[in-house]
C-alpha cells in the first residue's frame, strides 16, 4: 500500500484570500514578528498578541476552501493507500474542504492553550488577555499557536511518516523555515519520490524530483487526477 505525505504552507491558503507570512499589506506586514509571534512578545504585550490572533481568526472564518484544498480532500478520500496531510497553516480550510486527518504542526487558530498547565480547549472567536483556563482556572490562556522559538507539534510522528513515504509533496512553502524545510531531504533519504508545488521555486527546490510552478488551484487538481489515474 502506497503512502503519500503532503506538507502545505501559506501559499495554498493565499488563494483563499489569507495573506502569506511575507505578503505586503497583510496582517503580518503591520507588525514585527518579534511582537506578535514569540512568547516574549506575548509576555510584553498580551493584548497586542491576542488582538492580532483574534483578527486572524476572524479573517480565516470568512475565507473558503479553494480548489487546491478540495483536490487534497479528494485525494485522501479516493486514494487506495494512505494520505498524510501536514500543514504549517493555522487556519481550518483543509478540514472545511473535507480532509479528515490534518496534522497542524504550528497549532491552530481554533485552539486555546494554558500557559500554566498545558490544557487545550476550543478557542472562542474573540479571546481576551487573562482569560482563565477551564482546567486550572489560572488567567494564563493564550492562542494554541507555535511561536518562533517553540517546538512544532507532532515532530516525532511526522518524521516517522516521512521515513515511510513513497511520495512526498510540498505545496506553497518557501523553504525558509526549519524543520519543515528539511522534510524533503528526510523523505529523499528514505527514497520517496518528491514533488514541489509553488508559484516560484523554493529555496530547497533542487532537492525535488519534480517541480510544478503555478497556482495550487490549477496544479493540484491536475496532479491529483494523475495520481488517481495510476
UniProtKB/TrEMBL annotation:
Q: Which domain of life is it from?
A: Bacteria
Q: What is this protein called?
A: NAD-dependent protein deacylase
- Can the keyword S-adenosyl-L-methionine be found in this entry's annotation? no
Instruction: Tell me, in a sentence or two, what this protein's role is.
Output: NAD-dependent lysine deacetylase and desuccinylase that specifically removes acetyl and succinyl groups on target proteins. Modulates the activities of several proteins which are inactive in their acylated form.
Q: Which GO terms describe its molecular function?
A: NAD-dependent protein lysine deacetylase activity
| Any matching Pfam family | SIR2
Q: Where does substrate bind?
A: 53, 56
Which cofactors, by name?
A: Zn(2+)
Q: Which reaction does it catalyse?
A: N(6)-acetyl-L-lysyl-[protein] + NAD(+) + H2O = 2''-O-acetyl-ADP-D-ribose + nicotinamide + L-lysyl-[protein]; N(6)-succinyl-L-lysyl-[protein] + NAD(+) + H2O = 2''-O-succinyl-ADP-D-ribose + nicotinamide + L-lysyl-[protein]
Question: Which residues bind NAD(+) per the record?
Answer: 9-28, 88-91, 172-174, 198-200, 216
Domain Deacetylase sirtuin-type, by residue range, is: 1-230
Family named by the database record = Belongs to the sirtuin family. Class III subfamily.
Which PROSITE patterns does its entry note?
A: SIRTUIN (PS50305)
Q: Please share the entry's free-text remark on the cofactor.
A: Binds 1 zinc ion per subunit.
Q: Where does the record place the catalytic residues?
A: 106 (proton acceptor)
Comment block on domains: 2 residues (Tyr-53 and Arg-56) present in a large hydrophobic pocket are probably involved in substrate specificity. They are important for desuccinylation activity, but dispensable for deacetylation activity.
The Enzyme Commission number assigned here is 2.3.1.286
State the UniProt keywords alphabetically.
Acyltransferase, Cytoplasm, Metal-binding, NAD, Transferase, Zinc
Localization per record: Cytoplasm
Amino acid at each position: 500500500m502506497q503512502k503519500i505525505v503532503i506538507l502545505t504552507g501559506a501559499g495554498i491558503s493565499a488563494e483563499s484570500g489569507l495573506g502569506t507570512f511575507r505578503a505586503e499589506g497583510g496582517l503580518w506586514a503591520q507588525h514585527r514578528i518579534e511582537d506578535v509571534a514569540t512568547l516574549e512578545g506575548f509576555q510584553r504585550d498580551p493584548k497586542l498578541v491576542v488582538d492580532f490572533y483574534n483578527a486572524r481568526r476572524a479573517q480565516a472564518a470568512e475565507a473558503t476552501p479553494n480548489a487546491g484544498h478540495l483536490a487534497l480532500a479528494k485525494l485522501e478520500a479516493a486514494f487506495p493507500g494512505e494520505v498524510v496531510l501536514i500543514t504549517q497553516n493555522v487556519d481550518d480550510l483543509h478540514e472545511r474542504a473535507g480532509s479528515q486527518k490534518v496534522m497542524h504542526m504550528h497549532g491552530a487558530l481554533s485552539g486555546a492553550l494554558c500557559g500554566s498547565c498545558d490544557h487545550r480547549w476550543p478557542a472562542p472567536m474573540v479571546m481576551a488577555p487573562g482569560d482563565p483556563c477551564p482546567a486550572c482556572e489560572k488567567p494564563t490562556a493564550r492562542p494554541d499557536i507555535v511561536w518562533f522559538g517553540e517546538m512544532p507539534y507532532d515532530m516525532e510522528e511526522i518524521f516517522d511518516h516521512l521515513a515511510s513515504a513513497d511520495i512526498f509533496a510540498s505545496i506553497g512553502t518557501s523553504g525558509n523555515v526549519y524543520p519543515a524545510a528539511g522534510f524533503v531531504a528526510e523523505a529523499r533519504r528514505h527514497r520517496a519520490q518528491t514533488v514541489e508545488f509553488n508559484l516560484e521555486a523554493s529555496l530547497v527546490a533542487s532537492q525535488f524530483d519534480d517541480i510544478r510552478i503555478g497556482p495550487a488551484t490549477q496544479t493540484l487538481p491536475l496532479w491529483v487526477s494523475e495520481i488517481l489515474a495510476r
